[in-house]
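It would be a great kindness if you could assist me with a short task in structural biology. The matter concerns a single protein, recorded as an amino acid sequence and a row of backbone structure tokens. Kindly check, if you would, that the fold set down in the tokens agrees with what the sequence suggests. Thank you for your consideration; the sequence and its tokens are set out here:
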Amino acid sequence: MSYALSVKGRCSTCGGAGYKETLVQVGPGMVTQAMAEWKQVTEERKLLEVYIPRGAKQGDKIILEGEGDQLPNTEPGDIIFHLEEIEHETFRRAGADLVADIEVTLAEALCGFSRVVLKHLDGRGIEITHPKTEGSVLRPNQILKVAGEGMPFKKSDARGDLYLAVQIKFPDDGWASDPTTLTKLREILPRPGPTIKAETVDDVEYDPKASLGEFGSKDTQGNSAWEDEDEEEGGQTQCTTQ
């Protein structure tokens, strides 16, 4: 990675001395020695190459020694880069470990598959074969750990692990327009559990598009109702004691 920076370096005219002696002609056949003052340093623009090692992380420092500003009669300073990670659209990092979501269909979760589910940071495809044992199914938010496919450790051949969070893609509404398809599916899938028994049963309506973001939102309405009742009780005329 290259950076163009403006730094102060030794003045090429005076060599950093702050002055330069020259011969000046003051008349026919007459010369005198004059001294011109200089700034000792000049500002110059240079291109610096920065190497970021494999496995570098947030907050790491990269130091370019002797590439900073140079002042008179002193050694030039250093340039220090502080690394700041940018969020990736697919991977999230914790130390040397990586986590990413993978999407599989409901049919794949139940029946199995063998395909590339993810493209790694280096461009390699990560292939998963499921199931490993007959009859095994994938469940929503199940975590699959792939050892040694995380970030590399600095100055080491070892690597962290890759965690794959399974997201199940369910069919869209109306996918089985033929009732016989659902009948066959019910015959194949495990039967539902026992019915919950209750003395009173209410057949309720529900909103299939609700969100947990609404959860607890009616709490303020309940508090307001209690406050109104308290105000009404407090406003009643009290009996006078004698």
Q: What stands out?
A: Residues 2-17+36-82 form a domain with the HSP40/DNAj peptide-binding domain fold (CATH 2.60.260).
